[in-house]
Specification:
The protein has about 300 residues and is α+β, with helices and mostly antiparallel strands. The chain is built from 6 helices and 19 strands. The two termini are about 30 Å apart.
Length: about 300
């Protein structure tokens, strides 16, 4: 990391009371090193800190040089999407308080060492592709989102199977009859995509994954495409159908007939501080309960 870090933003999962003492300690630890701690408002209340600088969750990415997130992957994803929405390029350090931790891989005992390395410019950063989405309604731009994991189209709880037309760079690919469709980044390949039977894609691979959810035809299989592609998705539906789109599982809305969605690589990736204690494959083995690698010590 070339730029000096003088402001560190701190945010935690809402209601994570067990992190309150850690947050208070971090405020002191950073101040002793000449670094200003900047707290997200709810996080400052969680830590019962009144004399620190506070900003909103949406403004935090524009107010700091490094973001420290305490929580699970969902908390980190929520901040990643806010970083993109703010047009910021702030790296993010995730501390695992969750159950999986594919992204928040730094453990609590590793926190101070990881911060020391980051402040000193020794930290390794992973660059993670994000996806930019557009929803067109009545030939007008209806919504735009940038996501770290995925865009997912699904049927309503009581709806029948739905049909989704898919094209890549304006070349028709397929018409999927299924419970839904996932368009995932490599980072998102270990999220809903994995549960739906899609492949794991290493985050360094420039790719996107298209994965049907419970397809009606078993020949509809997940497909990996180049990350430079534009994916065009159109639900084939009538007024009675219930079809929804969600973005990173954080936001979403019901779709209407003739809505069209486009997904492509976002112009700016996310930078994540990587643990020096384990590799990506170590994380996979730990989180997915795989056996040790053949020949591993």
């Amino acid at each position: 990391m070339a730029d000096a870090i003088t402001r560190v933003g701190l945010t935690a999962k809402r209601g994570l009371t067990e992190a309150s003492g850690v947050l208070a300690n971090l405020a002191t630890w950073l101040a002793q090193r000449g670094v200003e701690p900047i707290f997200e408002e709810d996080t400052a209340r969680l830590a019962d800190l009144t004399s620190v600088r506070r900003v909103s969750r949406d403004d935090l990415p524009r107010s700091c040089d490094l973001l420290v997130v305490l929580g699970g992957d969902g908390t980190l994803i929520g901040m990643a999407d806010r970083i993109a929405a703010a047009g910021a390029d702030v790296p993010i350090l995730g501390v695992n308080y969750g159950s999986l931790g594919f992204l928040t891989e730094i453990t609590l005992p590793e926190l101070h060492g990881a911060l020391e390395d980051t402040l000193a410019g020794r930290a390794a950063l992973d660059t993670r592709t994000m996806l930019a989405t557009q929803t067109m309604r009545d030939e007008t731009l209806f919504a735009e989102h940038v996501v770290l994991n995925d865009m997912v189209i699904t049927k309503g709880a009581l709806s029948r199977i739905i049909e989704i037309s898919v094209a890549v760079d304006n070349a028709p690919v397929t018409s999927v009859r299924a419970d839904g469709l996932i368009v995932a980044s490599p980072t998102g390949s270990t999220a809903y995509n994995l549960a739906a039977g899609g492949p794991i894609v290493h985050p360094a691979v420039d790719a996107m994954v298209l994965t049907p959810i419970a397809p009606h035809t078993l020949s509809n299989r997940p497909i990996v495409i180049p990350g430079s592609c534009n994916v065009h998705v159109r639900p084939v539906m009538n007024e009675r159908d219930e079809v929804f789109v969600t973005f990173d599982g954080q936001l979403g809305f019901p779709l209407r007939p003739n809505d069209r969605l486009t997904v492509c690589r976002a112009p700016r990736p996310l930078r994540i501080v990587r643990s020096t204690k384990r590799t990506y494959f170590d994380v996979l083995r730990q989180k997915l309960k795989w056996g040790g690698a053949p020949g591993a010590p």
